[in-house]
Amino acid sequence: MAHDDGLERFLGWRQVRDLTGLGRTTAWRMRQAGDFPEPVSISPGRVAWRERDIARWNESRGSTAPEPQPATRPIRPTPPRPREDRVIATPTAKPNPSPSPRGSKPKSRPRRRSGPVIAEGQLGFDF
Fold it and tell me: What is the pTM for the complete model shown?
């Protein structure tokens, strides 16, 4: 818990997470409820937990380390198919577009305004 020279050890969040098995949000909620040790501010924007506080918290839970998660069944990779089974895609020519249902006239684009259209009483930003 403490070093031999009497200094107290501080733990960062990752170390606390590894020791407790808790997620950041769960630890925050437990702190709000008073069920988890409060962090100590060690510099502006940086907090840490006292190692002894985390150790006491773990002991109060009846465990010094988080329970190992049950191993999941390994997923076996699918072996590659033999080459003769593979289908090779070849590029094909694009079909000609079908004529428009309204006639053979292609669609026209909307016309752009030829100049600034400013109604009376509006400000123009044509600079």
Answer: 0.45
